[in-house]
Predict the structure.
Amino acid sequence: MAYFEHVKKIAYEGPQSKNPLAFKYYNPDAVVAGKRMEDYLRFSVAYWHSFTANGSDQFGVGTMKRTWNHLSGMDLAKARVEAAFEFAEKLGVPYFAFHDRDIAPEGDTLSETNRNLDVIVSMIAEYMKTSGVKLLWNTANMFTNPRFVHGAATSSNADVFAYAAAQVKKSLEIGKELGSENHVFWGGREGYDTLLNTNMELELDNLSRFYHMALEYADAIGYTGQFLIEPKPKEPTTHQYDYDAANSIAFLYKYGLKDRFKLNIEANHATLAGHTFQHELRVSRVNGVLGSVDANQGDLLLGWDTDEFPTDLYSTTLAMYEILQNGGLHSGGMNFDAKTRRPSMDPEDLFYSHIAGMDSFAKGLQVASKLLEDRVLEDFIDTRYRSYKEGIGADIVAGKANFKSLEEYALQHEIRNESGRQEMLKSILNQYIASV
């Protein structure tokens, strides 16, 4: 059965094309900064938003028109697999990603749930063979079921911790079977709503114990995918333990996990934490833990995770600026953790939205590559910090200075600051976005 019968395979037609079902900037075989565009961007479709979400929100029921909506249970799960691979092949994306509960329904027991997963995973494996579409990452949904009301690995109930461990054990086995290149931990409810009833130290220690157990089991079964933590500051809890990149990095250092974990940075989570997307990518990159990206954007007028498709060229350019300096995303990718807006209800809207996101990052890649090639920002930054390359600045960097020598220097020299030229640089950035 064809689920998107009115859509043909999406092709690159160039910036002058008026066809909404064609790429204007994303040309997978075009070489940018020494690599094929597809190899830098490594786009992935998020199973949950594209195939399980129904468009409901806090104020209304679902609106999405899907040809599989009349089905239920395992019949619905199987239809979604068929639709997902038809969509990925027509869109031309190399990857997809899912939570365990996206692909198969929970049963009355954990054993029944795992049997449901086995059936669907076997089906997915066959489609992966025939389509060539690969699994960027998989993860465990440990936030939807009421059992996780107090968290999963950070729950106050040890029985919930045990259940979560069994769920991740199965998820790692699925990851190995399907060859997932990464495994993500999004701590959906790993946080607190009030400290009045929270043993924070125990919860953080338990979260570390959980991660170490996951690593131990992955090694035991030979799963070699990269482990990722996805920072998020709030929602659904008041305060998540993986609040932002810096907070997550501190956790990794404290608990001896930095060598095995990297971060999956989401644009909308960055803004919820009061940062820019570029900031979170930069913090991750300079600390050597930039692993993957959830490509979306938020509505800055709203204070929650709106998961919109990325269309802000300023943001995508600066994101790709960081990713290029990172040497790419390696085993990671650009996963569209994004959903069509509630009024965008037709099946074709899934294509329009992904095309918009893919073109936005492709354009950002082109502009960022040109900025780096021309050393627009690098030369300015080198000049701005030139005082650390000679004299007292070089002594500071080399560790030869101390408070006594610095006082002697300060007593003899007058301070002369120079302009940071912020507005000029933004104007240049706009010029590159408009002209490249």
About this structure: The first strand starts at residue 11 and ends at 12. The chain has a mean pLDDT of 97. Residues 89 and 131 are 7 Å apart (CA to CA).
